[in-house]
Every structure is written in C-alpha cells, then in structure tokens.
Amino acid sequence: MDRAQKEKVVEELGQIFESSGVVVVAHYEGLTVAEMQDLRAKAREADASVRVAKNRLAKIALEGKPCESMAQYLSGMTVLTYSEDPVAAAKVAEDFAKSNSKFEILGGAMGENALDRAGVEAVSKMPSREELIASIVGCIGAPASNIAGAIGAPASNIAGILSTIEDKAAA
C-alpha cells in the first residue's frame, strides 16, 4: 500500500469515526471467511457496516476526533462494526459474539464516550431508532383513536335509541 492509498484509508476512517453513532472494536482472530461474510450480511440487514483496517492507520484517523479514547482497543487483529444508528452496530456485534466465540468485543465509542465491553453490551440492549419511533407513534396515535371512538360511540348510541323509539311508535 503506497502513501496515497494510506492517506485515502485514513480519510475514510476519519469519516467513519465522525459520522457514526456507534463504533465497536472487536478481535476476529480465527474467524473463517464465511463467518466474516455472515457478520457483514447481518450488519447490512441492520444498516450497519463492518471494516477491517490497519490499527496504525485507524489510530492516525482517530487523532483529534471526539472518540479518540477508543484507540486503546486498537491492537491485534481488530475489526470495526459501525452505524449511524447509535444502537444497530452494537446489537449486531453482540449477537454475533454470542454465536461465535472467536469474535471478542473489546470496546468502542458512542459519540464522545468511550465504551468498554460492558458499555457495548448496555448499548446493544437499548431500543433502536426504529423501535423508539414506533413506540412514540403508538403513544401519539392511541389518544387520537380513543377520542375518535368516544366521539363515534355516543352517535351510535343515539342512533340506536332513536331506532328503538321509532319501532315503539310504529307498533
């Protein structure tokens, strides 16, 4: 890899560190190509990404970034799992680590906050952006449907009463 390619990789990694909601660092020593492809596929399904990069280049890219403190986890054979959603990458990494003992999560970063192993696990248990939006919409929609039901119910009750009165008057 020549200097220009290295500079390009450092720039790409810098963008990842700045724009990602969460970055998880893990060791992947011993994983097969098929297992790595499986990890990448799971990440794609969750709108996350997986990237293997040289630790030295990643450390250079971290310089001056809010999540610079996660550089301590960049040693050995590391892989980065990241996403814009502050939860998606952590969920993917945790799920994969549960099913594969060779994938060892070291830590990561969420914005300016460095995460240790327990921090990544805690983030993975949080609801995702889509789950939060769905619950908020449900909370907003429930009172509206209750109001519509309350407004509609008296009208149907009145119509039923009027129908009964008509039947009695006709008889």
From TrEMBL:
Q: Name one GO cellular component term.
A: large ribosomal subunit
SUPFAM superfamilies of this UniProt entry?
Ribosomal protein L10-like
**GO terms, biological process:** translation
Alphabetical keyword list: Ribonucleoprotein, Ribosomal protein, RNA-binding, rRNA-binding
Under InterPro entries, the record lists: Ribosomal_uL10, Ribosomal_uL10-like_sf, Ribosomal_uL10_bac, Ribosomal_uL10_bac_type, Ribosomal_uL10_CS_bac
Q: Which domain of life is it from?
A: Bacteria
Protein's UniProt keywords contain RNA-binding: yes
Keyword Phosphoprotein tagged: no
Q: Which GO terms describe its molecular function?
A: large ribosomal subunit rRNA binding; structural constituent of ribosome
Q: State its role.
A: Forms part of the ribosomal stalk, playing a central role in the interaction of the ribosome with GTP-bound translation factors.
**HAMAP family xref list:** Ribosomal_uL10
- Subunit structure, interactors included: Part of the ribosomal stalk of the 50S ribosomal subunit. The N-terminus interacts with L11 and the large rRNA to form the base of the stalk. The C-terminus forms an elongated spine to which L12 dimers bind in a sequential fashion forming a multimeric L10(L12)X complex.
Q: NCBIfam families from the xrefs?
A: PRK00099.1-1
Q: Spell out the family assignment given in the record's similarity comment.
A: Belongs to the universal ribosomal protein uL10 family.
Q: What is this protein called?
A: Large ribosomal subunit protein uL10
* Organism expressing this protein natively: Donghicola tyrosinivorans
Gene giving rise to this polypeptide? rplJ
